[in-house]
């Protein structure tokens, strides 16, 4: 629902310039309620360009809060949008230091009551946590959406010590983002010199990220899990099960000692009042209650809510797209980890999953390099993009499967399953993918959650070692948190594979993994119903009126999978054209598109190839610019082969090009 009437009229200041101590000018947009009284301010800092990148979501959210008495400042971080400087990498200490300086500056403004909050989704959720750990005096509370406390274990780079292909897709996206010109309507004639400076400094971040394949100091910096006690301000953590970052919410609830609340719904990588899938909630109303409590001292009742409000998915068959509304219902826990959750242990026997162990022969699996195709994308972003997990029966056929008997009653699971196996491998470098599926009476297999582990990292992400070939060793793996009710008559399936393409980059050789039956377990987090579940209620979703927009060209999404039976090459081609549109209130026209092509032969992991392309064009004032980036990744047995190319055009004429090729040694990845 779009709200058009608010308690306060809203004044918009764009640009608001903030000059840092080193002379760098930071550009911001400020939405401020028109009132004689002093008000708090909430800060969001991301590099995605406030004027023409995130403007649609910014206008949906920040004026709504300002209309209810909370000022909001949307900051272009150093080197992005209209701000000075160089955006050298993500989540740098310099970015956090800038944020502390900006918070102090805004807190000292005559219209501010001295209390500041920080919020954001994805990048903005990351740096809200990172800045909270620095404890700037004016920062009293944060709301972090779709973020993480651990940059190595739970971001787009590595998962379980294995390389995510999402890393290269993301670095290519950032190549373009970093290469775009500032808005001449804001910075004036300086835009061209600023653009040329950015282009000269732009290179692929994958060169940095691939140089750090272990959990080292590079990843520890900015990972607040290194010291949860550093965060003392109040924290609300929000995410959705269809997003790749949902693990961070229960982890924060477990480890933070200060005031905290968690909400996990059915959503993808989007604010819970917009995007897909639903049902959406009145997220802004919850945020307002949070801000008014911590920044204004009002008793809004927000701390009377359950500690953890969570969506439990109901019976739902797999679809390639996000459904408009997921089946399920809300549940509540007042503690996390919850003492109400039963840790039910099932044993991996030759006959399936059972309550008691039955020692038997070892069972083995040798998954082809194409295994994993139907498991969706690591970073599925919802909407019309067909990148969700589909029926897992094909995947199950390439895995080692352990099933329960049909359930006698409905079974609700909430938390992270934990796997303990005794295995043998025939190669020193092996990836393990464990999927937990809801198997319908007709055989449909719906993915509930999964986890992966580079078995060289079985004891440590800091100090990996080769797998002992031919010698049994133990593997412990925690799968991703999830919540689902499995109906009576369904079965639960654990599927083990040693390939997970294209989510994971494959190890150099196909491998055989054998599991010792009767000596392995999976712990399932079984949740009984609670009367407290009835207390979970949200207002209907609301936003402010949208930014005036004219759609000039429609976009589309598609996913095409082809098998060349002659060459044996399987190709997955993802294409998203985001269309062309004009933001009428600022006379800016934007268009963008991306494509990701992943190919591999089932019998040859070294044939893996990723080509990712992103294009973005912006016309504003006297600037009409476009950037196109292409990144390609292949590998041999010892090295990754990374190449990238960036082209920038003005009014269709090439004005800058840069490229590089790098061989980066594989370090157990």
UniProtKB/TrEMBL annotation:
InterPro entries, per database record: AB_hydrolase_fold, CocE/Ser_esterase, Galactose-bd-like_sf, Xaa-Pro-like_dom, Xaa-Pro_dipept_C, Xaa-Pro_dipeptidyl-ppase/CocE
Keywords from the UniProt entry: Hydrolase
Coiled-coil positions: none
Top-level taxon of origin: Bacteria
GO molecular function terms noted in the UniProt entry: dipeptidyl-peptidase activity
SUPFAM superfamilies: alpha/beta-Hydrolases (SSF53474), Galactose-binding domain-like (SSF49785)
Transmembrane spans: none
Pfam families linked: Peptidase_S15, PepX_C
NCBIfam families given in the database record: CocE_NonD (TIGR00976)
Identification of the protein by name: Uncharacterized protein
Protein's organism: Rhizobium loti
């Amino acid at each position: 629902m779009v709200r058009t009437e608010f308690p306060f009229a809203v004044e918009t200041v764009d640009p608001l310039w903030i000059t840092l101590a080193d002379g760098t000018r930071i550009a911001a947009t400020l939405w401020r309620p028109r009132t004689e009284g002093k008000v708090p301010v909430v800060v969001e800092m991301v590099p995605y360009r406030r004027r023409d990148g995130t403007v649609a979501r910014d206008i949906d959210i920040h004026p709504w809060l300002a209309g209810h008495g909370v000022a909001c400042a949307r900051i272009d971080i150093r080197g992005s949008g209209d701000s000075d400087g160089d955006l050298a990498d993500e989540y740098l200490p310099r970015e956090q230091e800038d944020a502390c300086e900006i918070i102090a500056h805004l807190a000292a403004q005559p219209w501010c009551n001295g209390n500041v909050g920080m919020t954001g989704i994805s990048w903005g959720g990351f740096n809200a946590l990172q800045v909270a750990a620095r404890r700037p005096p004016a920062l009293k509370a944060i709301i972090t959406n779709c973020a993480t406390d651990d940059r190595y274990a739970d971001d787009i780079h590595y998962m379980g010590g294995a390389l995510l292909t999402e890393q290269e897709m993301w670095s290519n996206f950032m190549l373009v983002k970093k290469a775009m010109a500032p808005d001449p309507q804001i910075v004036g004639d300086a835009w061209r010199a600023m653009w040329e400076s950015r282009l000269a400094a732009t290179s692929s971040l994958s060169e940095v990220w691939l140089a750090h394949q272990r959990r080292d100091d590079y990843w520890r910096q900015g990972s607040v899990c290194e010291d949860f006690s550093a965060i003392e301000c109040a924290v609300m953590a929000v995410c959705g099960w269809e997003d790749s970052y949902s693990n961070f919410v229960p982890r924060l609830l477990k480890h933070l000692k200060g005031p905290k609340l968690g909400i996990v719904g059915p959503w993808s990588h989007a604010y819970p009042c917009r995007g897909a899938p639903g049902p959406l909630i009145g997220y802004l109303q919850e945020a307002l209650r949070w801000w008014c409590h911590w920044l204004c001292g009002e008793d809004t009742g927000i701390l009377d809510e359950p500690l953890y409000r969570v969506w439990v998915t109901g019976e739902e068959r797999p679809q390639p797209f996000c459904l408009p509304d997921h089946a399920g219902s809300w549940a509540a826990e007042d503690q996390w980890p919850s003492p109400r959750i039963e840790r039910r242990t099932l044993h991996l026997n030759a006959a399936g999953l059972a309550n008691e162990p039955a020692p038997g022969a070892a069972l083995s699996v040798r998954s082809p390099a194409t295994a994993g195709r139907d498991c969706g994308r690591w970073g599925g972003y919802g909407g019309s993009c067909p990148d969700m997990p589909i029926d897992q029966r094909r995947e199950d056929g390439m895995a080692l499967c352990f099933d329960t008997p049909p359930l006698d009653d409905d079974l609700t699971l909430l938390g992270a399953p934990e796997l303990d196996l005794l295995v043998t491998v025939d190669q020193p470098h092996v990836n393990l993918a464990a999927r937990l599926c809801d198997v319908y009476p007709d055989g449909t297999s719906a993915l509930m959650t999964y986890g992966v582990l580079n078995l060289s990292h079985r004891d440590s992400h800091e100090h990996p070692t080769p797998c002992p070939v031919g010698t049994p060793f133990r593997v412990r793996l925690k799968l991703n948190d999830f919540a689902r009710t499995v109906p009576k008559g369904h079965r639960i399936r654990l599927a083990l594979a040693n390939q997970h393409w294209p989510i994971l980059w494959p190890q150099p050789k196909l491998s055989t993994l054998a599991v010792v039956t009767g000596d392995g377990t999976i712990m399932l987090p079984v949740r009984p119903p609670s009367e407290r579940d009835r207390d979970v209620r949200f207002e209907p979703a609301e936003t402010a009126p949208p930014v005036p927009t004219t759609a000039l060209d429609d976009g589309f999404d598609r996913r095409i999978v082809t098998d060349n039976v002659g060459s044996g090459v399987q190709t997955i081609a993802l294409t998203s054209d985001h269309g062309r549109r004009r933001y009428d209130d600022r006379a800016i026209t934007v268009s963008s598109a991306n494509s990701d092509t992943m190919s591999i032969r089932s019998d040859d992991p070294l044939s893996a190839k990723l080509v990712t392309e992103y294009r973005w064009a912006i016309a504003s004032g006297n600037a009409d610019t476009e950037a196109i980036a292409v990144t390609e990744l292949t590998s041999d047995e010892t090295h990754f082969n990374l190449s990238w190319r960036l082209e920038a055009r003005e009014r269709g004429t090439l004005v800058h090009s840069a490229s590089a090729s790098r061989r980066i040694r594989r370090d157990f990845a």
